[in-house]
Amino acid sequence: MELHTNSTFADRGNSYQVTRKPDDNMRSYGKFRSIFLSQLCSICIFILGLVGGILIGIFAYHGGPNSSRDIKCIISPNKDQVVTREGTNCSHISTTISTISTVSSAGENASSGNPSTSCNTCPVKNPVNSVSSPGLFDPLSTDEMEESFAALFKSGVIPTKDPPVSFNQNYVQYMSLQAPKKQEALRFLQKQGTSGRFAKVHVVRSGINNPDCMIYKVGPLGRDGANVTQLLADGEAHINTRPKDLFEALMVFDFLKKDMKTMEQLISESFDGASFMDDMYIFSGNSPFGLTSEERKIRFNLAFKGFGNSEIMDLFDLLPLQGAVIASSLNVSDWFATDYYYLNQGPFKTAKDLMSSYTNGTIRKLQLPKGYMKTIRDRIVPKRDTSLPVREKADIPGTRTYEPMGARYTINGYNISWMGWNFVLSGSQVRGPSLFNIRFKGERIVYELAFNDVSVMYAADNYAQNNVIYTDATYGILEGEIILGLDCPEHSSVLKIATWNSRTATPIETPIVCVFEVDGEESLWRHKGGAFSGGQRERHLVLRTPVTLGNYDYSLEFHFHLDGRIVTKARASGYIQAHFWDVRNKHFGEDKSFYPFGYKVSDFHVGSIHDHTFGFKVDLDILEQNNTFRLIHWKAGSVLDALQTKANVTEIPSYYLFNQTRYIEWETLYKEAGLRIDMEKQKFWTVVNTNKKNKWGNSRGYRIIPMTTGAQNFDDSFLPMKALSFTKYHCAVTKRKDEEEFLTSTFDVNRMMEPKGHLDLMINNESIVNEDIVNWISVGFLHVPTSEDMPITLNVETGFTLKPHNFFDRSPVLDLPQETNTIEPSEYERMPTFDQCYENIQITKHPGEP
């Protein structure tokens, strides 16, 4: 029990003396006596502490009896190195241990003498266990992908098992797990049925008479004779709705060589003597490629290569020479280039037309400074600026967390358990990471929590980049690889997920998900005052998936907290997409530092304004499937308005100080609907089970708390809005259907005038009371690039929280050890302690690193 040396307690800056009520003389005497005894006691404790501290210090300094058996390694008082006693070898320590210093009363660093520390290795408990066969929701294995590919070949869908070599040959683009039907999966989880595993395979069928894009269901896997089932009608997804094609970028480059040769003089004179073949590439990924299914119009930008002979997805150095390739036919001889623009001057129907105007001097010309190309590497590679001094003490390793007694989570295959949580990690090459069957303390909360898509919409003042729109699921989201020690701590457990490589026609396993427990470095709860002090330290489990989509990098994360919260996050970094800054552009106005589409961020570029909207599927099952969406309105009004929400009241009670108050009002959402955040009419969004009550009679549920700084400001008159309808809502609630798997179609971005798989199609006025419902959550942010985004964008974050809402009878963390101190009667508890140790972490070196 903590010893209190006086009877004075603090509360919000005021002091209160605990007394009885004697007469004035006795009160004065008692007060004097109390103060005297308190001060005397304090002095005694101080003297005892000082003497004890000196003795303990001397004892510790000399090691105490048998010290050589207890202390294996100590820190040198004068050097940042480890020395040993009794010949103990500490050379395997992979991190530098620095001398400890304290701050003197004068505010300067002072040596602490001869500090020592234990060098014992932290116990290692490998939390990952292999399993003999994949679980119901596990991502596809490489064996299952190869089995699926073999089945497609056997059925004649794929003409050869070799990698595709022709533009007019069917090939597999993506493979992912086909999630089981929900009722079938629930019966299987309850051990009341069986369920097979199936693959969902995207195939570009460019080798058939009427080319199209097709999706197949292949399985059941792991048994003899997997079936191949076509999921779309023939021609439903026209061949021109495909994503940027395997061969297409190279073919566009080859196709434009002739035109670039025609413009050789313009390119050399304008772009620092550049040669198209040696110094440049064609960026042809500006989506959409067509507004109808039959159209394939590829807007392109001439661009400098990143550095050396490689492209670093340098969408920053796009140059003011643009055009389009009309590639609606798979026969390249039918293609043609048109709509050439140079410094926003055009359109010129052909390259010859542009060159004619260039050579006769009827258009403005550009001449980049000599040597500009040589600055590319310095401008686009994020590295320390050696012209600046290193920040003080930046060369000393920073703070980090570790596992003093090994990992506290367990991973069996892709089934993960930690502190009462249990769930299955899954993943789709197209859609990204997902979680299934999330349970807390044995009760199901979420059936499916899945990343679905991200929309990015750009604005710029030039031909190729105005109204650029990406939906990243079209290109496949689960692409990337962990940088250990940067994306995740070195002690993380790294899990691999298989994806299909369309270039080699083989599956590859990539380390793309890491799992680790994090110290929140704060309290989960705390209180100190009067006769009580205590709290609980905040820690949580993190699943992180870093992915790279062209120039942008996303970190997709799920955080599980001790109090039953699930926090889903999406972070964005990477290179901005910019467009050329032309000082003589008449649209820039007088002030050349900014204009309607962004700020000037370098000598010749403007950061294009854009947004990021992340879409998630959240299938909450609060204890069972039949749930209800309930809004809680946060209101302000008259006292009568408040009281009349629940009772027939006609007069304001006299005890109210004002005739205005805040109050809440409940509303049940009866029909499918899309919801938007309105800060002037604030609401709580909750999913509750009205059939299950807690101890106090409240419907058990969870609250949805968006963390968003962006909202869609286009209305339905904007043509792409139908295909991107998920961006209109922060949360849409629909009745769950197995066929309504995702909030977008991967083909709609290239057929925006006739979309067939968007969220608005799911919102059709069906009843959602006491039903199995899905919440389609969309969160995001607006990005106006500034000079701080150069050369690389620092992380920007969005997400949402699922938080218990009357789900428990009381705080769910009371089954955890915590800090507790009380007086009269005494209560005492401490969180688990540990011995200091070091992690024997092997730091991974990159190729070519010394």
TrEMBL record:
**Where's the Copper amine oxidase catalytic domain?**
401-814
Q: Which InterPro entries match?
A: Cu_Am_ox_TPQ-bd (IPR049948), Cu_amine_oxidase (IPR000269), Cu_amine_oxidase_C (IPR015798), Cu_amine_oxidase_C_sf (IPR036460), Cu_amine_oxidase_N-reg (IPR016182)
Give the record's cofactor note, including how many are bound.
Contains 1 topaquinone per subunit.
The UniProt similarity line reads: Belongs to the copper/topaquinone oxidase family.
- Does the record carry Electron transport as a key word? no
Mind telling me what this protein is named?
A: Amine oxidase
Positions modified as 2',4',5'-topaquinone?
552
- The entry's active site is 472 (proton acceptor), 552 (schiff-base intermediate with substrate)
The EC designation for this entry is: 1.4.3.-
Against PANTHER family, the record matches this protein to: AMINE OXIDASE (PTHR10638:SF20), COPPER AMINE OXIDASE (PTHR10638)
Q: Which cofactor does it need?
A: Cu cation
* Modification note: Topaquinone (TPQ) is generated by copper-dependent autoxidation of a specific tyrosyl residue.
Gene Ontology MF terms: metal ion binding; oxidoreductase activity, acting on the CH-NH2 group of donors, oxygen as acceptor
